Amino acid sequence: MNKIKPITWCALVALLPFIFSSCEDYLTIDEVENRTIATDYYDSPQKLEQAVVGVYVDMRRALLHNHAWLMYGEGRAGDLTLEVDMMDDVAAQRLTNGTLPLRQLTDWGYFYDAIQDANHLLEKLGPAKGGLLSSYQYNLYRGEALALKSMAYFYLTRIWGAVPSAEAADRGTLLTQQEVLTRCVQWAAEAKPLLPRLLLNDDGIVSTALTEVRFNKTAVSLLLAHEQLWLGKGQEAYDGLTAVFEGQGTDSLSNFGLSLGKDSDPDITQQPYNGNPIHITKEKLEAIYPVGDTRRSMFTIPATGTTASLIIAKQDLLMIYSTKEINLLMAEAAWRAGQLEAAKSYLTTAAAGATENYALLTAGATENYALLTAGTFADALLRERQRILMGSGQRFFDLIRFDKVGQFLPSYTEGDLAQGAAYWPLSAQSIQTNGLAQNEYWSN
Amino acid sequence: MKLLPKDVWKFTVAVLASFAGLHSIQAQEVLVLDSLPATNTASLENLLQGQAAGLQVKSWTGTAGSQSIINLRGLHLNTTDESTMPLFMVNGVPIIANPSAVTGINPLTYYSAEQIERVEIIKDIDQLAALGVQAPNGAINLIIKEGTSGPLHVHAHAAAGVDYVAGFDAGKDAFYNYHSASREAVYAKQSLIQRQHISVDGGGDYGSYLFGMNNYMASGAIKDAGFQRQNLFVNAKYKIAEPFSIQFYTNLALADRDGRYAGQYNRDLSGTEVADEGFFMDDNKNVGLLSSMDLVYRFSPNFHLRSVAGLSYETAGRDLYIPSNILDGEVLAGSEAFKRQMLSVHTSLNYTHRFSELLNLKVTVGNQIVNSDYRITAVEGMKGLESGGSDYVKVVTGYNANQAKAYSDSEREKLLSFYGTLNWDYKQKFFLNMVARADGSSLYQNKWALYPALSLVYDLRGDTDLPARFKVGYGKTGQRSGPEQYRGELVGLGDYYGGNKLGITQLYAPFTDAKSVDIYQFDAKVDVDIQSYLRMELGYFNKRYRDFTYMRFLPNIQGLDYAFETGAALQLHGLEMNAQGQWIRRKAFSWASNLNVAAYRNSVTELPADLQQTSLTHLSALTTGDRISSLVAYEGSQSRIIGNGQPELFGGLTNDLRVGKVALGFTLTYSFGADAVLESYESAYVAEQLQAGFPMATGETAFYFKNDLGKESFRYQGIERIESVDFVRLGRVGVAYHFGDDLQKWKIRDAALTLTGENLWTFSSYSGLNPEENITCIRKADLGYTGTALPASIVLGMKLTF
């Protein structure tokens, strides 16, 4: 037998540490081509901006699928109709009849997708502060993430009432509407100072077109005031709105809507307005917009037939916060803060300028709002919100906030509304996967 | 090979090898291939059909160049061909053996039977643990022939014949019901098979050499479709110096398969008949290369270093053009390219230590690196043509797609392993094998997994009159779990702001606990020599699988659709029996037989909690003890087991007879215990809710499948029949005439005239043409995963050795 010399063994043993030392590095593949993996992807401002845009796209999905923005608003309120199968069911408050589009409308998944996107973005933004991003970019992206999250929760609680938290600290905990709104206000208030009035494009130049499709100071201020009004904090809303809008020229203001575009999900329409006009019955049109009201020009009114159709001025945008709403919210905030005269003034201004943008005031309503009293102001404001914001999807939410659901939808009794009839039923998926119980009204 | 060896035993072995093509030694662990072809197909796996207990080779299609489904004690939670396929190696070098999704050409066609010396079937845990995570489903090692010592030898083999779909019954053809007018016409009455092989070898003190080439062409049972393969190979061994030797092996293959629209791929024709496919193109081309270099350095007779580097490489390209007369006024063109490479380096130190005359120890320590890189690029475009003009005008107008789809992806993986084995041998009676392997994979954040094994052998032959040997073994191995899930993945949601901005989000979060499936295996077997003519081996194995990776669907407040997790457990156990008989061994007459039987049972031993919220929801009808291979469907609103997709008793019987210069051999294969579910062509609809009950057509079952279309939409598919697919098949039969010394005057050392037949007869109650035609055991209404009819073939050949 030939023995191995000890020195040979020593050499072999000495080799082992070298072999093992770099194993971990060797087994880590840093470059993964043609695949967007989560680890280490966000290494440039452009990639972080993709995550920002992702939140907008998921919000767009939430509001566009099955014409959700309209169904949650004027569709359910019975003001506007679309030629879709579920329309009759929605208008007749048959929200649990089991058809696929309705089942999809009862599911809140897209809103929570947007919340997850926003939280994911906020997590990724932390390490990028001061390094990867300029302070403008950091503030903008963070402000957008907070505002979009606030908006998503705000929609959720207006549609379903009490909804679960998707925050890491208490994920799955069912929050009352008060709790949801309180958080919404906190996030929007945090976003407000971060967001600019006007956004810069990739070349560093102010872009009104870009500002219109991204959260800006006008939009977040309106969102915050809106949420505060839901919470009954009129004075805070009034103070906030006044600070932002008092004395501002129109150049610093901007609409805010979701830019329409191609979605990777083929079921999400790119052109929600094409080929399927939004109708209103002539009878309802006459009731809402009496002869002489210039807002009738928002509709194409054929000489024959029983319906008119809503004119969509900007076909490439799903409007969320129009500058038209500034005076409406100012009026409401002033009224709820106990300043009726100021409120009437804002309402008059809003009514007068409703057909054009904020700068061009023309005669609108036929009513004289200077004669309103504390007892009649709410109805007038609600009516003007209906007229001015027609098609924005806010009508049913306004009915809830003004406690007028029973008045406009008499099929609901006080008892029904106490059981939660004003809110949408939960989808089977929402109930099953979150361990929730169906809304008391819809479970019957 | 000597034609008529004087030794009767060698003579019988020669007969065995000549006509069944296979002969087993060491209790069916090693299958020896002779130079005569035993299969008329180009697919090597068909040689193994029915030859080893536990090895299933499922002939699901007659499309030439396709791969049969190969299973060697393989099981998986989501059973697919790949998830249960054994590891294939050539001279110990791992190779890419599964067909690429692009062309479907079988990489096991890159080698001809004449190149293979023997096939090692590796099932025992003490050998599998040493292969680690590469071989959860066993391993098959093809040992390539080397040049033989002496002056130059030339081997030539040429064969030609026909294949045909025997007694084609259009009514039984799964495709026929779908396209009744066109189906029968696409089958050729007969089509040509031809093959040629030539090799040259020699050897001496310097080493040995062997090189040659092969050609195989089959027109295929389907008209205008066909397969051909050419390959060149060289195997050279050179002794550089006394302690140092090197061996090079290279095999370069070109494979080409043409497809036909009707009857081969398409299950979705808009019309019932395609009159002219003259402009149709489905051209599949593969280039396969295996190159290896094996270095051995002997420090001493007891100590040597061995390093083997291998490169398995394949490009697969498919060009597709569908003219407008098929697509009703539109043309479609596409091109796909898939490149796969696997680079491996395996280095080991081998030392044998003799403690005494009684006790020996063999030590092996080594490491292995396997890097794989897969890349795919595909472009496809479609254009609708203006109306008017004949279809052929539209065709030649050409393709100028205005809507092109492009796809590109790549997947890389690194595997780094260290292992050691200790093989103790006491008095040549007790053998103790100890194995440990550490595998590190780039697929996981937690890189390393340890796979130990232990086996004990007791050979009674020396001590007692009982001619038996016992072996038990226990150990652990593993199976990799899919892509790089631990990294998480982002997806594009859509465009924004005039299409200038892309929105992205997370598809799923990183799964940092990703790991391989753990497989714990127990083996026990005994082999007994009964007199001198019968050797029997009886074995039991039990494989327990734990920690599969699956998706858990998240609550819809999570914003992510799913997260990965590991869990679930399965069991596969069974009995294997192999009987090798040498009944008569006389010079004028000999008869040998081999019978192998495998009786398997798989079962679920653990399922995740809240199964409905996982990607395993289709298993909801199963409880502990049920077969994972159960076929599950709905009846009313209840999910029920309606059949079993895996055979529970299968194997083969081979007999070889020789009378004078004439030899006859045949192999029967059989399979029992599996079912097929035949979907209805009529009872299917998409509906939001099941409002109508099944059956929707008369004479169908009350069962149906529910296929999730996403977004709470479902497709309901009725089931026409559930059938047994038990069968017995005369897989291969061969007759040969050996000329003996008759041709010596022409310097021909060996010559034989052979006639081989394949798939000549199948006995089964299955109503289709081939009881194995359904890959998933479900004959789907769209005929996806269903093969074409299996043709029979008869080939006449001549083999010469100079």
UniProtKB/TrEMBL annotation, chain B:
Subcellular location: Cell outer membrane
Gene Ontology CC: cell outer membrane
Keywords: Cell outer membrane, Membrane, Transmembrane, Transmembrane beta strand, Transport
A UniProt-annotated Pfam family: Plug
InterPro entries: Plug_dom, Plug_dom_sf, TonB-dep_rcpt-like
Domain TonB-dependent receptor plug: residue ranges: 29-138
Main location: membrane
Recorded topology in the membrane: Multi-pass membrane protein
Record family assignment: Belongs to the TonB-dependent receptor family.
Protein's name in the database: TonB-dependent receptor plug domain-containing protein
Species per Swiss-Prot/TrEMBL record: Sphingobacterium olei
